[in-house]
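Field reference: sequence -> structure
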Amino acid sequence: MTSSAARGVRVEDLEHSYGQEPVLHGVSIDVSPGESIALLGPSGCGKTTLLRLIAGLESPSSGSITIGEDLVAGETWVPPDRRRVGMVFQDWALFPHLSVAKNVSYGISKSTSKDTEVSAALEMMNLAGLEDRMPATLSGGQQQRVALARALAPRPGVLLLDEPFSNLDTSLRIEVRTEVRELLADLGITSIFVTHDQDEAFIVGDRVAVMRNGQIVQTDSPQGLYHHPVDQWTAEFVGTVSLLKGEAASGFANCSLGSVAIDPQLNGSVDVLIRPEQLSITAGGDGEVQSVEYYGHDSMIFVALGDDQIRVRCGPLVKFNRGDQVQLQFTSDQALAFRSD
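Structure field:
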C-alpha cells in the first residue's frame, strides 16, 4: 500500500474560543509535506483543539488553515470529508458493531478495488487474518492498529493523531509508537501528533511544537528544544533539570556547584538549570545522597548540596547509597541559565 501524495499544512494566526473562553491565541505553524510534527504541551493548552480545527471538526474564530494548495478554513470553509485528512482519536473510536474489515473500509469510496485496499491496510498494520473479528475481542494494541489502518486506508494526504498511545500499557506503547514512526516515514505521509509526553514527542516528531496557554512558544528539532529552549518554562518542560540560584558575571555563574559557564550576555541574579547528564559524581565531598532511582539502563541519584537538591544521571552500576557523602562536578561546556524573576 502506498500513500497518496503527502500534503503540507500551514496554519496562520489561528484564534479560537469556546463561548467566552479563549483557547488558541495567534497560532501559526508550517508543516512540510512528509514531515512529522509533534504538538507537545500540558493538558488544556489547546493541542487537541488545534488538531480538530485542522481536521475540520470545528471552525476557527479567525485565521486560516491551508492543506496542500487548498485553503480549507478562513475566507472559505471546506468540510472534513473533503480535506483528505485522516484522524486517529485518543480512544480509537472503533465501531463496536462492525468487524475489523468493515471498520477499516469505513470512509473508503466505493470502488472495485475496495477489498484490495482494505486487505493492504490490514497487512500493513500486521492485522491480516483478523478481518472478521469484532473490536471487543482484540487486545489494546490490535485495536490501536485497526484505528491506524482505518485512518490510512483512504490514503489521506495528512494524518492527525490525538494521543493515540495513551490507553496502552508502557511496554506496548513503546513498541507501537516505534512501529508507527517507521510506518509514517516509509509512507512519506505528513503527520501531526498530539502528546503531553516529552519522550513520545521526541521519538515521533521530526520537529516538536511546544504549546502553552493556547500559544506555540517554540518549534524546533528535539535536539534544538532540549539544548536551546526559548525560555525557562520550556527548558523544564522538555527534560529533567535541577534549578540552582546563581550570580552571573563574565560568562560564569556562581552557585552551589561552584563556578559554572553560562551565556556571557547574562549578568546579575540568574536561575541556572543543570541537566542530570551534565554532572559527574565521586565519593567524598559536601553533597549527601538522598535517594537512588534505578531504571535498569541507567540510574538517577538525588543529592542534597546546601539548600539545593540536584539530580545526577549515572550508568546502571550504582556504587552510592542513601547517606553517602559525594562530590559533584559540572562536566559540560555550558549550562542553561535565565534571568531570575
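Note: The helical segments are 47-55, 100-105, 114-124, 140-152, 170-187, 198-204, 222-227, 232-237.
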